[in-house]
Specification:
By secondary structure, this protein is α/β, with parallel strands linked by helices. It has 11 helices and 8 strands. Strands 5-4-1-6-7-8 form a 6-stranded parallel beta sheet, sandwiched between helices. Strands 2-3 form a two-stranded antiparallel ribbon.
């Protein structure tokens, strides 16, 4: 689809959060270290083991590209942490992890660019916005409020909202249903193959951004799944003719 047609075709824009609107490394690097430290309870060997299974660099306070935390939910990598902590894997632990991450993520929250200004521009252009993240919904809503996005987003869902987690298409389909339009009139914007795969599976337009933790190096991985590739979400207004 040519860009000049795209802006008249799309009704809703569904954003991934981390790596798309929120700087992943600067936010979740420090936050994860805080959470792992809390859960390890001062036991250095457990902290080391948590960092190891998370593919986390303590010195740089960032994740390796292979980390299961980059695109996954706490329910996805939680069993790895449960084994290290000697605790049962399940909702009780994942809920505790989500609460700790919600507080630590807010404390370290670092946006990419000016998400509120971008959202205001897109809403003024006639688009309805949403957030679909593999973070917990409560965390996503708290961060949206802190970033000034709450009033611009008509739809916010996380892995625990009942629509499944990406790369499954449930979040995208739910947004289309919320707007009462076919999924082909939705654009999913994200930095991960999970985001683009979810868009493809739902029949939506897949827009990749290179603002995630892998930066431009992600292009080769994203290109086969993307209808469009942008340096960042800030390039959306130009793509849509605003």
């Amino acid at each position: 689809m040519r860009p000049e047609i795209l802006g008249t075709t799309i009704r809703g824009i569904l954003f991934d959060k981390d790596g798309t609107l929120v700087d992943f490394d600067r936010t979740w690097g420090p936050a994860a270290y805080s959470v792992m430290s809390d859960l390890s309870g001062g036991d250095r060997s457990r902290l080391d083991a948590l960092m190891r299974v998370s593919h986390y660099d303590e010195v740089g306070q960032r994740f390796a590209p292979t980390s299961p935390l980059i695109a996954g939910s706490s329910a996805g990598y939680g069993p790895l942490w449960a084994e290290v902590l000697g605790r049962p894997a399940g909702p009780a632990l994942y809920g505790e992890m989500d609460a700790l991450f919600r507080a630590a993520g807010l404390a370290a929250l670092t946006p990419i660019g000016a998400p509120s200004d971008l959202a205001a521009c897109l809403v003024a252009g006639g688009f309805t916005l949403g957030i679909a993240t593999n973070d917990a919904e409560a965390s996503a809503r708290a961060q949206c409020a802190a970033l000034g996005l709450a009033s611009h987003c008509a739809f916010v869902v996380g892995y625990d909202s009942g629509h499944g987690a990406k790369p499954k298409p449930g979040m995208v389909t739910a947004f289309a249903d919320h707007l009462g339009v076919p999924a082909k009139r939705i654009a999913m914007v994200g930095d991960s193959p999970y985001d683009l795969a979810a868009a493809r599976a739902a029949g939506a337009i897949a827009i990749a951004v290179l603002s995630g933790p892998l930066g431009a190096a992600a292009r080769d991985e994203l290109e086969p799944l993307a209808d469009y590739i942008l340096d960042s979400a800030a390039d959306l207004p130009a793509l849509l003719g605003l």
